[in-house]
Amino acid sequence: MEYFNISNSITWQNLPWNKINEKLFNLQRRIYKASQRCDYTIVHKLQNYLIDCDYIKMIAIQNVSENLNKYYLVYDEEKYLINNQEKFTILQQLNCKKNTPSQFFKDKVKQYLVYLCLQPEWTAKLEPLYYESRNTSKNRLDARIKRFFCTNFKFKAYSMCSLIISNKHAVKYISKEYLCKKLQTIPSIVSNINLWLDQQGFLEPLINSKTGWEWLLPEEDKLFMLIEKIIYTGLEWSIFSCTQLRYKINNNCKFLVIFYDKSKFFYFDNCQISFYLVKDIQNFFVAVGCDPNLIVLNNIQANSSNLEILEFSLTNKIKSYKYKYAVEPNKKAIENLIRKIKYLLYHKNQKSKLRSSNHLSISLSTKLIYIDLYNWHMYFNQTVDLDMKNRIYCVVEEMLYRWYTKRSTLINKKVFQENKNLLSSKFHNLHNELSY
């Protein structure tokens, strides 16, 4: 691409837009490819370059100016026009920390730049395993979640009740630490997102009060929608797809499901919904990093004749929770953990028979086991209680002892006991270390 100085007498219309767009496309494609390979060193290097590139800033200024004009034409029928000379001025003052009359516009440009950095990286991370059709090339997170629950659970329409939680409220009160930990991106993006969350600097979608449909311009404030997807994807859906949620009322065990549809969460139950189920919802919001004390829920009972809408505070209902509550990982999740530890201590020979791994020292084996247990607890943090933790450790301890007896001639008994005690103390401290 031919480089040029923006201070020259080049007009905004005569900029080589085709070449600039081509440069943006190539940068995003390289970020996408690096994200697919999990090469985050290259991803962060390219993101740093993209967010500081003057040519990409020109694209952001042009797109934001056009779409803000369209947005305000619909919102209050006013024109929001910026002349070409002002666009060059904004480009030169974009990194200026002092507040200017065009501060709102500068924030929108920076948000769009952050979106251009994060979008290709997270497109690769959220890439579906298969597409609904040949014409669908974008990630359909909502469709994938719908498909999972529709194929694994059955509901009766006439007896279905739901608790509707607005996605918009959850995003306003998200945990910044949770979001930044999940992004794992460059410091400049993290600091900007923290600032915008503190100042509530995101432009939310326009919602039609009659139909409930959300209206948002294609290019305007895409970062807001991307952050929503990032928050509600990954760990939280894996938790609820790999766990059994149940509550006991009159000794009857009933299964519950969190269901995602457009911008709302539906909490389904086969019987009439009870206020005592709020504890389950609280755990869900804790899992996704939200503060449940700040969220107002709507209890909607769906009947054939009428709809009763009752607003209540989550905090007050949690205090009145009386019934027993049990959440635990699925058996397959525990079996996978045990199998992984087993194949760490043993290996298969040419006849596919298990043999102890003699190359492992006792200190290295206990260290690797602890890493596997720690990662497993991090993944199922919200669903592991003390009793289950003890049961899992008993299995691991027996497995480790059997492995030791087969290698008793190679490992000193005193050294083994010291390492086993160290593993036990670390393991039993996990519950307190990983508490929210």
Can you tell me about this structure?
The protein is built from 18 helices and 12 strands. It has about 425 residues and is an alpha+beta fold. The protein folds into 3 domains: about 15-125, no CATH class; about 140-325, no CATH class; about 330-435, no CATH class. The strands form 4 sheets. The protein has a 5-stranded antiparallel β-sheet with strand order 6-7-1-8-9. A 3-stranded antiparallel β-sheet has the order 5-4-10. The longest helix has 23 residues, at about 105-125. Mean pLDDT is about 65; it is low at about 130-140, about 150-170, about 205-215, about 235-275 and about 295-325.
Helical proportion, percent range: 40-55%
Biggest sheet descriptor: 5 strands, antiparallel
Rg, alpha carbons: 27 Å
* Average predicted local confidence, pLDDT: 65
Number of domains: 3
Please, how many helices? 18
Counted beta strands: 12
What percent of residues are in strands?
5-15%
Which consecutive residue ranges, at least 5 long each, have pLDDT under 50? 129-142, 148-170, 207-214, 235-277, 294-327
With strands numbered from the N-terminus, the spatial order across the biggest sheet is 6-7-1-8-9
Based on helices, strands and strand pairing, what is the structural class? alpha+beta
